[in-house]
Specification:
Elements lengths: L1 E4 H6 L1 H4 L7 E6 L2 E7 L1 H13 L5 H8 L4 H10 L9 H15 L1
Parallel strand pairs: 1-2
Antiparallel strand pairs: 2-3
């Protein structure tokens, strides 16, 4: 990870945003961490992994990746060799019981 001051990023933006595949950049403002930037492939993997692990919602993942429909998210998961997330067994069981109760 590279660390640059905000002024340095402003003065050398093109160079600051030149990323390798797994590179990241921490931008400090007044000596404190203010922003973090990642290469696009790394950021995409991070968002997809967060979605699969249940850390972010489907809508949040789609918004962060700029997807307008769920199929795009499924395609991205397939390309990244990530399995679609699933509910824990207990949650599926509870939903099934509730659906049976509601539907008769």
């Amino acid at each position: 990870m590279r660390v640059l001051a905000a002024t340095e990023v402003k003065n050398r933006l093109g160079e600051a945003l030149s990323f390798e595949e797994d590179d990241s950049l921490l931008i400090e403002k007044n000596g404190k961490a203010a922003f973090m930037a990642f290469s696009a492939p790394l950021a995409k993997r991070m968002v997809l992994s967060s979605y699969v692990q249940g850390a972010i919602s489907r809508s949040a993942a789609m918004k962060l990746l700029g997807f307008e429909w769920y199929g795009q998210l499924l395609d991205a998961l397939t390309e990244a060799n990530l399995a679609r997330p699933s509910l824990p067994k207990e949650a599926r069981s509870a939903m099934s019981k509730h659906a049976s109760k509601v539907l008769g």
